[in-house]
Amino acid sequence: MRLSSRAVVLMAVAALPLALSACSSGSSTGSGSGSGNGTSAGAKPAKAQDPDAGLFTGTQLKKALAPASAFPSGLTLESDGSADSGGQFLSPAARKTGKPDCTRLETTSWIQVSGYKGGVSFAQNGYANKTEEVDQEIDTFQGTTATEVMKALRSVAAACATYTDTDAHAKVKLTGSATSGLADEAYTMTLTSGYWENGTTLIAARSGNSVVTVLSTAGSDNGAASAKKVTATVLSALKK
Question: How far apart are the C-alpha atoms of 238 and 69, rounded to whole Å?
């Protein structure tokens, strides 16, 4: 889920076919020998490569989100936090540089702490009760941007090693480490504070052009097991 929803503006782009006309003459006025008539065709212009070609749409990503059975019992779907970008792609946004806002790590759609607003397509939802929550999101990016997002998230662990949260104004400690066995690359961050009843586990995992981000506070292990289960479930669905 996103605390503040991205404005999804879907623009239908009409595909205008390029007409390639061949110019023919009834008789040749050239000085060359041979038949007196022929055709002259203009060179076909090179077709621009579609940067979204082969990428998952939001509709496809929605189907890859982990089902309710992958979440801890006692949590229910937060319907107002479910969203996706539908069947068309969004315009890619430039990365916001500068010091990361560490407090975003405690929110849904925490991928934005990387400086990237999100992908050209996305899907998200979350499950919660009064004390625990588990949120999942998939963002798909053009080109090599997904790799850059992962690199940015790894740098966040160092930049936000300690910070002050927004609610209790308490000191939060962040630890992060590479995580093996999850797709092309994965990184796990754990947030803890002496003022919290339980910590938070964040996992970011890249599968090709898609980045899966999961947040969990469920369980006595700072949400670690539930976060990994949901992440693995989503990654498996993306490979199908």
Answer: 17
Confidence category of residue 43, pLDDT binned at 50, 70, 90: low
pTM of the complete model beyond 0.70: yes
Question: Does the structure show a pLDDT above 80 at 128?
Answer: yes
- Over the chain, what HEC string results? CCCCCCCCCCCCCCCCCCCCCEEEECCCCCCCCCCCCEEEECCCCCCCCCCCCCCCCHHHHHHHCCCHHHCCCCCEECHHHCEECCCCCCCCCCCCCCCCCHHHHHCCCHHHHHCCCCCCEEEEEEEECCCCEEEEEEEECCCCHHHHHHHHHHHHHHHCCEEECCCCCCEEEEEEEECCCCCCEEEEEEEECCCCCCCEEEEEEEECCEEEEEEECCCCCCCHHHHHHHHHHHHHHHCC
pLDDT tens digits for range 210-224 = 999 999 999 999 999
* pLDDT (tens digit per residue) in 85-119: 999 999 998 999 999 999 999 999 999 999 999 99
Residue 238 has pLDDT above 90, yes or no: yes
